[in-house]
Write a structure and sequence with these properties.
Layout: E1 3-6, H1 12-20, E2 25-28, E3 33-36, H2 42-52, E4 61-64, H3 70-73, E5 74-75, H4 81-91, E6 96-102, E7 116-120, H5 125-133, E8 137-142, H6 159-162, E9 167-170, E10 181-184, E11 190-193, H7 199-206
Parallel strand pairs: 1-9, 2-9, 4-7, 6-10
Antiparallel strand pairs: 2-3, 3-8, 4-8, 5-6, 6-7, 10-11
Length: 209
């Protein structure tokens, strides 16, 4: 049975129950619409990959509901701690994903067998509440079949994709409407993807990359 909510009738307790039963959810974030599932469930993570028709060689990031969740799932390189903290202070919550070394319990399927994980705290209340409902960490990627346009609103999530997901949340348009910028801070700083946060703004905070 498919469960569909809008912002007027959303039931966070029910969403929590369904996620804990390994369902996956399409929901709005501040950047674009995402699809997420329980971090402790390999079955749920596989459902995300299958819904997207995504290669298991492509990692999925984790969205968090508060900064203190970072070191529950990742290690902060001590030489980069100050610049990482400065980036968080400037750009979180918001459109910057930071890659760090993952902790051992994070499933390898989530990180494409790699030893790092991308982490972001979104700047949208409904997203934060959904993430918080399952413990503050929710693996999430864009809610589209690989190769399709990334959805900036619920209406842009394809019917084919919706059919593959157990929980759908219609939250209208995402405020930013652009994917996050990704920076790898697990070693030497490196921009992986340019998105919502311009590189020039990042360099004002941590220097030339």
């Amino acid at each position: 049975m498919k469960v569909i909510y809008d912002l007027k009738n959303i039931d966070f307790n029910r969403i929590k129950e369904l996620l804990e039963k390994k369902e996956i959810v399409v929901y709005p974030t501040d950047t674009v619409y995402g699809v997420g599932g329980l971090i402790t469930s390999e079955e749920a993570i596989k459902k995300i990959y299958q819904a997207k028709e995504r290669s298991y060689k492509s990692p999925i990031i984790a969205l968090i509901s508060s900064v203190d969740k970072i070191e529950e799932i990742a290690y902060i390189n001590e030489k980069n701690r100050e610049p990482i903290e400065n980036l968080i202070e400037k750009f979180w919550p918001g459109g910057l994903t930071i890659i760090l070394k993952k902790k051992e319990f994070v499933p390898d399927i989530l990180t494409a067998e790699g030893d790092t994980i991308g982490i972001r705290m979104p700047n949208l209340d409904i997203a934060l509440k959904i993430i918080e409902s399952v413990g503050g960490v929710l693996p999430t990627t864009s809610a589209n079949i690989s190769g399709e346009t990334t959805p900036r609103s619920y209406d842009e999530v394809s019917e084919k994709f919706r059919e593959r997901v157990g929980i759908l949340i219609d939250g209208g348009k995402s405020p930013i409407g652009e994917e996050s910028t990704i920076i790898d801070m697990s070693n030497e700083p490196k921009i992986v993807r340019v998105g919502a946060i311009p590189v020039e703004e990042i360099e004002k905070v941590i220097g030339k990359i």
